[in-house]
Amino acid sequence: MEVRALRLTPGQDLRRALECAVYAEGCSAAFVLSGIGSLERAHLRRAGADDAEALHGDMEVLTLAGTIAANGSHLHATLADASGAVVGGHLAYGCLVRTTAEVLLGLLPRLSFRREPDLRTGFAELVVRQEGDPAGLT
């Protein structure tokens, strides 16, 4: 595993910036080790919902976790608003950094992550492969 530390700046889209950072490394398998910061706008899809909900105002990123694959991410975040109310869910595009986001990424250069349709769940789910292994790991 290789580790990269990132500091994102105001106005950057959190999810898109993380994906771009991983792809710029030529990596197709990564995960978030740690992530904190602040957002001015967020889009979270809550459990069982079809669409992401837009949230506005100053928010602290309390936790950030998930995987970044060659063809998509699966990221979860926990956010707190100015009153301390906490909400969490799937991190969608459109989460704009307010002052900073500090993220540690773990890059897995010998693995490949892809999201492929899973008939059991109805979603594109993570498939893990060793580089050069077409069958995938279970």
Please explain how this structure is put together.
With 138 residues, this protein is mainly beta. It has one domain (2-110): Hypothetical protein, similar to alpha- acetolactate decarboxylase, domain 2 (60s Ribosomal Protein L30, Chain: A), CATH 3.30.1330.80. The chain is 8% helix and 60% strand. The protein contains 1 helix and 8 strands. Strands 1, 2, 3, 4, 5 and 6 form a 6-stranded antiparallel beta sheet that branches. A two-stranded antiparallel sheet has the order 7-8. β3 and β4 (72-81) form a beta hairpin. The longest helix is centred in the N-terminal third of the chain and has 11 residues, at 14-24. The chain is globular, with a radius of gyration of 15 Å. The two termini are 20 Å apart. This is DNA-binding protein.
What distinguishing features does this structure have?
DNA binding, 60s Ribosomal Protein L30, Chain: A, DNA-binding, six-stranded antiparallel β-sheet, two-stranded antiparallel sheet, DNA-binding protein, mainly beta, PPC_dom, 138 residues
Order of helices and strands: EHEEEEEEE
Using only CA atoms, what is the Rg? 15 Å
- Broad CATH class: Alpha Beta
| Fourth CATH level, the homologous superfamily | Hypothetical protein, similar to alpha- acetolactate decarboxylase, domain 2
Helix content: under 10%
Write down the domain tally: 1
**Shape, please?**
globular
CATH fold title: 60s Ribosomal Protein L30, Chain: A
Work out the oligomeric state of the chains in this entry.
single chain
Give average pLDDT, whole number: 95
Give the N-terminus to C-terminus distance in angstroms: 20 Å
Number of strands: 8
CATH 2nd-level architecture: 2-Layer Sandwich
Alpha-beta content class: mainly beta
User: What percentage of the residues does DSSP assign to strands (E)?
Assistant: over 45%
Number of helices: 1
Q: Low-confidence segments, ≥5 residues, pLDDT <50?
A: none
Main sheet overview: 6 strands, antiparallel
